[in-house]
Amino acid sequence: MSRINITINSRIYTVVANEDEAYLKRLCDYVNEKVKLVISEGTHVMGEKPLVLAALNICDEYFKLLDSSMPMENMSEIISKNKQLESEIRDLKKDNLSAEEKIEELKADNELTEKILDEAEEKIKFLEGQVSTMENRLKKQRGEFAIREKELLDMLDSK
């Protein structure tokens, strides 16, 4: 919501609207031009009369524009389509919010999975080290076994 002060016909008004400040100032300038036109064309136009006459002139322009540019059937179609699009926008925003929540869940799952994977990799490295140690022990024991076997065979041969 925008809240700005505008001046129309030397009077300050506070306007609160959804539109941005530049747009509201543009409207204010337009109304001021219409008021100046009413004052310049009339004699003894004072008080609120210029504002009322300017408002009537603006309404006249508006209705003539509506009548000339678009039949009312088209207007109701546009209004209907606009409502449909607004509904679709709301649905898309909900879907987007759901998707963002799902992304956050997946990120959390991914972090957990990466942590588990890191732990598994550490265990694998540890186990690989143990396998290597065991293989070295096995080679050593096979070497010792081969030496004893040879000693036994030599002893048996010498008898």
Concise description?
This protein has 159 residues and is mainly α.
How would you describe this structure to a colleague?
The chain has helices at 21-41, 49-69, 72-158, and strands at 2-8, 11-17. By secondary structure, the protein is mainly alpha-helical. It has a two-stranded antiparallel sheet. A hairpin with a 2-residue loop joins strand 1 and strand 2 (11-17). Helix 1 (21-41) packs across helix 2 (49-69).
How is the topology of this model organized?
Layout: E1 2-8, E2 11-17, H1 21-41, H2 49-69, H3 72-158
Antiparallel strand pairs: 1-2
Radius of gyration: 44 Å
User: From the helix content, strand content and strand pairing, which structural class follows?
Assistant: mainly alpha
User: What fraction of residues sit in β-strands?
Assistant: 5-15%
The largest sheet has its strands arranged as 1-2
Got a strand count? 2
Oligomerization state: single chain
Could you list the spans in which at least 5 consecutive residues all have pLDDT below 50? none
Largest sheet: 2 strands, antiparallel
**Arithmetic mean pLDDT:** 87
Query: What is the count of DSSP helices, taking H or I runs of 4+ residues?
Result: 3
